[in-house]
Specification:
heterodimer; A: mainly alpha; 12 helices; B: 71% helix
Chain lengths: 231, 99
């Protein structure tokens, strides 16, 4: 690494660190929850590097625990992760010139937080040809914190009483991410319709409510946004 | 079995993240895809939030209990502060104090 690359890498780490205030508690709770859902410690810990996505892992563990068919577990997680296609498209023009090895590593590390931090760097730096080191730094920082938090959560899980309802921290985290960003009618309609399908779709077979709620919410939001943009 | 599903899920996640700079296909999304994909987080996370707040252990809808109250107060804090930590503290705090 040249010193310019190194500086960019370190900057990525520094920019990502403040976000770990939200990531680490989530990872801890996932560790606790994985064990509570009946996964083994090894399964819980390795899921954090194999699946590597907060909401995905929680949904995976909870659906798996209720005996949901693998196909529904897989499609529920897939629909949750579709959003990453947006991130992938947004960084594509910067990453396309890189070697395959770089692109594979950065693809693996492209999480919500890493994207949120590093896309700003790509768009504002006067040397965008170095900014992949920024993404590497911010992506790796999140990855390392996520793995450590999961392991600590798994180890601590056995000593944390169920009455603390730590699992409730997960929907609370999502509330902090979603609610402040419901600006347009289409956002509110997408959220409300998905919530209603989730509640009234519990009777759907095979635990298909997450997929159903997602499809309805995305469709409602998308259609309304057409109409909003024309108005 | 769980290992196979986990690995396939992980590969699918990676494929989505890698897709637009894989070099295998066009690296831009059509406008309609971008428009609809923007609503994925809102829809998915709202579904998970609603289920956690309003469903009891039997899967029945509960419109008013300590979980709903804790969630409502946390929602206000979430909107006012945008802070994950303050939202968690509020929600869990309410649950622990009156739960």
């Amino acid at each position: 690494m040249t010193s310019d690359n190194m500086r960019e890498f370190l900057r990525g780490i520094g920019d990502q660190l403040p976000l770990q205030l939200g990531v680490v508690p989530f990872g801890l709770v996932f560790g606790v929850l994985g064990i509570a859902s009946g996964l083994s410690p090894l399964q819980t810990i390795l899921m954090s590097s194999i699946v590597f996505g907060g909401a995905s892992q929680v949904v995976f563990a909870q659906l798996w625990a209720t005996g949901t068919s693998p196909l529904i577990v897989g499609s529920s997680v897939a629909v949750i992760n579709l959003r990453h296609m947006l991130y992938s498209a947004a960084v594509a023009k910067y990453l396309r010139p890189l070697s395959l090895r770089w692109r594979i590593i950065l693809g693996y590390l492209l999480t919500d937080e890493a994207f949120a931090i590093s896309i700003k760097r790509f768009e504002t730096t006067d040397r965008p040809e170095l900014a992949h080191y920024h993404l590497l730094g911010s992506g790796l920082t999140l990855w390392v914190c996520w793995q450590i938090a999961t392991v600590v959560g798994v180890l601590a899980g056995a000593t944390i009483p169920d009455e603390l309802n730590l699992g409730f921290a997960i929907p609370l985290t999502f509330m902090a991410l979603v609610l402040p960003n419901l600006h347009r009618l289409s956002d509110i309609a997408a959220a409300t319709s998905a919530a209603l399908v989730a509640l009234f779709g519990q009777a759907l077979p095979w635990n298909a409510w997450i997929v159903a709620a997602a499809v309805v919410g995305i469709t409602v939001g998308g259609i309304l946004s057409h109409w909003e943009d024309r108005a | 079995m769980i290992w196979i599903v986990m690995i396939l899920t992980g590969l699918a996640n990676f494929a989505v993240r890698f897709s637009m700079f894989s070099g295998l296909r066009a690296s831009t999304l059509p406008d309609w895809a971008e428009r609809y994909l923007r609503y994925v987080p809102t829809a998915v996370l709202s579904a998970i939030i609603a289920a956690a707040l309003f469903l009891d252990e039997a899967g029945d809808i509960q419109m008013w209990n300590t979980t709903v109250l804790a969630g409502l107060l946390a929602a206000i804090i979430a909107i006012l502060t945008r802070s994950v930590i303050f939202t968690i503290i509020t929600g869990l705090g309410v649950l622990w104090i009156i739960g």
